[in-house]
């Protein structure tokens, strides 16, 4: 799940398409949350560019405590895969999500057009 997808779902932002919200909120949906997303959103919150409903540590602790969320660590093989990606996106966090989705055979939930330019399965 891309960072904006997670935030928009949590805060109920209308920019998240209803079908995506239903999929993400369905208890049968397996949700994998990359450490890259947690890292990116923590940096944005600490830098004042993102308002979370509570401090980042508490917010993410509660989120990953939810059994529906599976946390995906960043592994060396994910980092190595970055070198294989075409130079489409300049955001290192998004590039990591693409690498992880490819290696882990995951669908990436995102509204980012540049991410959809990669050979990765996306939802939205």
Query: Which regions are unreliable across 5 or more consecutive residues at pLDDT < 50?
Result: none
The CATH class assignment is Alpha Beta
- Distinct helical segment count: 6
The largest β sheet comes out as: 2 strands, parallel
Kindly estimate the percentage of residues that lie in beta strands according to DSSP.
5-15%
Shape: globular
By secondary-structure content and strand pairing, the structural class works out as mainly alpha
CATH structural architecture: 3-Layer(aba) Sandwich
Protein architecture, described:
By secondary structure, this protein is mainly alpha-helical. Helix content is 47%, strand content 10%. The chain is built from six helices and four strands; from the N terminus they run H-H-E-H-H-E-H-H-E-E. The model has no long low-confidence stretch (mean pLDDT 92).
Short description:
The chain has 124 residues and is mainly alpha-helical.
Topology:
Elements: H1 3-11, H2 18-25, E1 31-34, H3 35-46, H4 56-65, E2 69-72, H5 76-81, H6 92-104, E3 108-109, E4 122-123
Parallel strand pairs: 1-2, 3-4
Question: Which key phrases capture this entry?
Answer:
124 residues; mainly alpha; Rossmann fold; two-stranded parallel ribbon; two-stranded parallel sheet; 6 helices; 4 strands
């Amino acid at each position: 799940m891309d960072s904006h997808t997670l935030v928009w779902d949590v805060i109920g932002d209308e920019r998240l398409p209803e079908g995506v919200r239903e999929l993400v909120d369905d208890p049968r949906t397996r949700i994998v949350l990359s450490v890259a997303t947690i890292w990116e959103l923590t940096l944005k919150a600490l830098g004042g560019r993102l308002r979370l409903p509570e401090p980042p540590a508490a917010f993410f602790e509660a989120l990953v405590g939810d059994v529906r969320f599976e946390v995906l660590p960043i592994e060396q093989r994910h980092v190595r895969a970055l070198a294989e990606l075409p130079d489409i996106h300049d955001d290192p966090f998004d590039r990591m999500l693409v690498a992880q989705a490819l290696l882990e055979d995951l669908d990436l939930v995102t509204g980012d057009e540049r991410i959809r330019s990669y050979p990765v399965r996306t939802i939205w």
